[in-house]
Amino acid sequence: ELEDKKVKNDEHFKTLKSIKDTKSSPFYKDTKVLSCSHVLMKNGQSVAIPFKAPPAPQDVKARRSSETYSVSKDMFKVRSNVHAGMIKKPLEKYHPNAHRSRLPSPTAVMPYKNSSSIVIGDRASED
Fold first, then answer.
1. Within a domain: residue 43?
2. Can you say how many angstroms the Cα of residue 72 is from the centroid of all Cα atoms in its chain?
């Protein structure tokens, strides 16, 4: 394993040297400068061109949306029966027809089980 790493490292330096030899100015072709990609001459000045930076790792959290749930989920969620007369109401975004601003809706009284409004017998005499 150590030998493999040495071989790979040697191959890497050979490729770097071949790139440097092809791109560098003639004065720097046979040097052992491997701290930069290649060396150019501009207006009589030596300019070292750096290696390309490796790509920055992508942060998964940065790409994630700040919205925790969809608009349709928010619109069609099951809401508790809130009205203007309640003491504690959940906060919501402003909406002119919000349920929390409405008056309480009248509740329908359900009749008892097995009870009937039909009276059998004489209606004239109520006892």
1. yes
2. 18
Instruction: Supply angle C-alpha 37, 40, 43, rounded to 5.
Output: 155
Task: Please state the domain count of the chain.
Answer: 1
Q: Is 114 a member of any domain?
A: no
Enter the pTM of the model: 0.35
On the CB side of 7, CA atoms within 13 Å amount to 4
Q: Is residue 112 part of a domain?
A: no
Q: Dump pLDDT digits (tens) for 55-101.
A: 887 777 777 777 888 889 988 888 788 888 888 888 888 888 888 88
What is the rounded (10 degree) CA torsion for 15, 48, 30, 54?
A: -10
What range defines the domain where residue 41 resides? 2-49
Structural domain contains residue 74: no
Residue 47 neighbours by CB under 8 Å, 6+ apart:
39, 40, 41
What's the rounded Cα separation, in Å, for the pair 104 and 81? Answer: 9
